[in-house]
Amino acid sequence: MAGSVKFEIDYKVPPEKIWRTLTDSDLLAQWLMPNNFRAELGAEFQFRAKPMGGWDGVAHCKVLEIDPPKTLVYSWGSNMIQTVVTFRLEPRAGGTRLYFEQTGFEGMNGAMAKFFMGGGWKSKLRTVVPQLAEAA
Fold first, then answer.
1. How confident is the model at residue 69, as a pLDDT?
2. CATH number, domain at 130?
3. Alpha-carbon distances, residue 14 vs 7, 29, 44, 65, 95 (angstroms)
4. pLDDT at 110
5. Nearest Cα to 101, choosing from 83, 86, 116, 81?
6. For 1-31, how does the pLDDT look when each residue is reduced to its tens digit (9 = 90+)?
């Protein structure tokens, strides 16, 4: 059975500022990993980090859906997992609500990745992303 990571976060900045932190390659590198991301439908890109725990350090991704500044969906594959990451932004009074979901965690590798990635996403999206967005 496949698992997922899912949560919501409210920010005190408009969707356009959060969007920028999710789609600007330099800002992504500051809160997530070095990358060659392009905000274009069908664009293939990679995130790179130090290999650890059986993971080779490379996430191979492809933009599956993009609707600025509302929706960004991309595949996230590695030598350990094959998942889909979804960001949906909704304007709220005084800011933005982010709906985040990563789906497709399967088997033991998936369960381990879900545990580590879920905490990482939540921490970064709650702390670093709003700081970068406010400065953007």
1. 97
2. 3.30.530.20
3. 19, 21, 28, 21, 5
4. 86
5. 86
6. 579 999 999 999 999 999 999 999 999 999 9
Q: Which domain holds residue 20?
A: 3-135
Q: Are residues 32 and 124 in contact, defined by beta-carbon separation less than 8 angstroms?
A: yes
- Give every CB contact of residue 110 below 8 A, 6+ residues apart in sequence: 2, 3, 81, 83, 104
Tokens encoding 109: 């590798």
Non-local (6+) Cβ contacts of 24 within 8 A are 136
Q: Looking at residue 80, what DSSP letter applies? A: S
Structural domain count of the chain: 1
The one-letter code for the residue type at 123 is: S
Q: What is the pLDDT of residue 94?
A: 92
**Neighbour order of strands in the sheet with 82-92:** 3-11, 95-105, 82-92, 71-77, 58-67, 44-48
The pLDDT of residue 53 is 79
Residues of the chain short of pLDDT 50, as ranges, are: none
Q: Which helix (H) or strand (E) holds 39?
A: none
